[in-house]
TrEMBL record:
CDD domains: ATase (cd06445). The lineage of its organism: Bacteria, Bacillati, Actinomycetota, Coriobacteriia, Coriobacteriales. It catalyses: a 4-O-methyl-thymidine in DNA + L-cysteinyl-[protein] = a thymidine in DNA + S-methyl-L-cysteinyl-[protein]; a 6-O-methyl-2'-deoxyguanosine in DNA + L-cysteinyl-[protein] = S-methyl-L-cysteinyl-[protein] + a 2'-deoxyguanosine in DNA. This is MGMT family protein. Residues 5-86 form the Methylated-DNA-[protein]-cysteine S-methyltransferase DNA binding domain. It comes from Thermophilibacter immobilis. The keyword Ribosomal protein does not apply. SUPFAM superfamilies: Methylated DNA-protein cysteine methyltransferase, C-terminal domain. It comes from the Bacteria. Keywords: DNA damage, DNA repair, Methyltransferase, Transferase.
Length: 103
């Protein structure tokens, strides 16, 4: 497996319960600020929670959920996040002011 995939998983494993990170934030933490889309590819191919990678904690920078969330769709992603105490705005986006992870 590509080492950038593994590095992506290591960063995402650090996102605490009840917090979210953006794809771009993860890419910047990898030292690859222009590879947010690659982060999405890596998460889509990840082992998910079974492999200890909380992919559901990664969202778009505006708080939108991934329409193609690989592990059950955006409704499942929202359910998992709400179960961790992540709050949502009336427009359905994560309240990034309250829930963004500041690494």
């Amino acid at each position: 497996m590509d080492s950038l995939f593994e590095r992506t998983y290591e960063v995402v494993r650090q996102v605490p319960e009840g917090r979210v990170a953006s794809y771009g934030q993860v890419a910047r933490m990898l030292g690859e600020p222009r590879k947010a889309r690659f982060v999405g590819f890596a998460l889509h191919a990840s082992p998910g929670m079974a492999g200890g990678v909380p992919c559901h904690r990664v969202v778009f920078k505006d708080g939108s959920l991934a329409p193609g969330f690989a592990f059950g769709g955006p409704d499942e992603q929202r359910r998992l996040l709400e179960g961790e105490g992540v709050s949502f705005l009336p427009n359905g986006r994560v309240d990034m002011d309250r829930c963004a992870w500041e690494a």
